[in-house]
Amino acid sequence: MVSDGILLGMGNPLLDISSPVDEEFLKKYEIQLNNAIIADEKHLPMYDELAAKPTVEYIAGGATQNTIRVAQWMLQTPGATSYMGSIGKDKYGEEMKKNAQAYGVNAHYYEVDVPTGTCAVCVTGGERSLVANLAAANHYKPEHLTRPENWALVEKAKYIYIAGFFLTVSPESIMLVAEHAAKNNKVFSMNLSATFICEFYTKAQNDALKCCDYIFGNETEAKKYAEVHKWETENVEEIALKLAALLKESGRKTAVITQGADPVIVAHDGKVTKYPVILLPQEKIVDTNGAGDAFVGGFLSQLVQEKSMEECVRAGCYAANVIIQRSGCTYPEKPDFN
């Protein structure tokens, strides 16, 4: 059994507005396949256009929230996970609260007078492109984190995970939690999350990396990080080793890089280990949205139980495999991972 609130996540809660779209739609809104960006003016009409499609689905999302939901599902212990982020006082916000409760996640949302954030999930041939309109999610403040009832979640957690996207919102909140983790020998982990984070939030990202025990990411993000830092290599194994070396001086210092259908690369202690993923025929892949988030959720569900690296990766691959065969970051009632 895992202890109550053992895993805490903080991030940008977004309601996913998801639908299959065609190449024309991507062209119209200048969206690249398999990318994640923040919406600007030209993208705003897109949300209504997606919402009007008969194929549209609404799913509580946001990278960290996806990861925490998947970890909670894998653990099957109500209240094992907690989550904080900012939502609006509106129907989407209410939907989010209902969702978190149904999933067994103990969510403490900061509620603000701004619409709840949304993320357009444009699915083309099973691949996803994400355009986030942060709205309320962009208004998270350390004052919410430091309230006694919320800081209690930080105190209770032994493992903390924050996606890189939160660096655009509240780096101060990240550092407060990271410093607490360092002082109390807790496990702090983050995700590279997107190429734009590596490119435009370099200082905040590097400050946070120095506090991490684990860093997650995919090969595209890892290569972008290497390019921005002039490492002059595209070799993902080399990059993973260099990333691991940047982390907090603890015995953990681990970089975990996923590569889609190619093996997962784990760099620790100057060594790289590769773990094969569960391969699926193309026709079984419904939607890759949330695959990376699900991988981290599966991984953390075993890490909090102090399982081996092999088991953590196996659980990550299992969770990602389940999620890509379904629409959005959703899953059946119970996992059959053993």
Automatic annotation (TrEMBL):
Give the record's pathway: Purine metabolism; AMP biosynthesis via salvage pathway; AMP from adenosine: step 1/1
Q: Which family does it belong to?
A: Belongs to the carbohydrate kinase PfkB family.
The active site annotation covers 293 (proton acceptor)
Record-linked InterPro entries: Adenokinase, Carboh/pur_kinase_PfkB_CS, PfkB_dom, Ribokinase-like
Q: List the Pfam families hit by this protein, alphabetically.
A: PfkB
Which reactions is this enzyme annotated as catalysing?
A: adenosine + ATP = AMP + ADP + H(+)
Q: Which GO terms describe its cellular component?
A: cytosol; nucleus
| Organism whose genome encodes this protein | Rhynchospora pubera
UniProt keyword list: ATP-binding, Kinase, Magnesium, Nucleotide-binding, Purine salvage, Transferase
Record-linked PROSITE patterns = PFKB_KINASES_2
Q: Which cofactor does it need?
A: Mg(2+)
The organism's place on the tree of life at top rank = Eukaryota
Q: What is its EC number?
A: 2.7.1.20
Q: What is this protein called?
A: Adenosine kinase
Q: What does this protein do?
A: ATP dependent phosphorylation of adenosine and other related nucleoside analogs to monophosphate derivatives.
Gene Ontology molecular-function annotations: adenosine kinase activity; ATP binding
**BP-aspect Gene Ontology terms:** AMP salvage; purine nucleobase metabolic process; purine ribonucleoside salvage
Manganese recorded as keyword: no
For whether the record's keyword set contains ATP-binding, the answer is yes
Top enzyme class of this protein? transferase
Domain (Carbohydrate kinase PfkB) spans 34-332
